[in-house]
Amino acid sequence: MNRKLIKFVPMMLVFAMGAAGCASTSQSELDQVKAMASAAQKSADEAKQAAAKAQSTADQALQTANEAKQASDQANMRVDRAFKKSMNK
User: Fold this and answer.
1) Angle ∠(21,22,27) on CA atoms, nearest 5
2) Taking the CB of residue 29, how many other CB atoms lie within 10 A of it?
3) 3-state SS, residue 89
4) What is the enclosing helix (H) or strand (E) of 51?
């Protein structure tokens, strides 16, 4: 019985050490996954901010284009009136 116990104890130690190694490896892998998830979230937040800035810029560009079109339409109307006046004289 002692011989079986003597053989069994080192096997249990090896198993315990292996299990501890797996646990630490799993924790290490978990930490890596958490770090990757954190980096992905940071990138997503930055992308969201960039998209909001791009939307704001696009809105400003649209407003500027609308103002330019309005100014152009007014200028065209003035040219048309001036042309009509010159034709009537």
Assistant:
1) 100
2) 10
3) coil
4) helix 2-88
* Dihedral of the alpha carbons of 61, 66, 69, 74, in degrees to the nearest 10: -140
Which pair of structure tokens corresponds to residue 7?
């053989």
Residue type, 83: F
Output the six-digit token pair for 8. 């069994």
Does this model's pTM top 0.90? My answer is: no
**Tokens at residue 38, please?**
């954190």
From CA 84, how far away is CA 28, in angstroms rounded? 83
The span from the CA of 84 to the CA of 74, in Å, is 15
Q: What are 1-39's pLDDT values in tens digits?
A: 445 545 555 555 556 556 555 556 688 888 999 999 999
pLDDT tens track for 49-77: 999 999 999 999 999 999 999 999 999 99
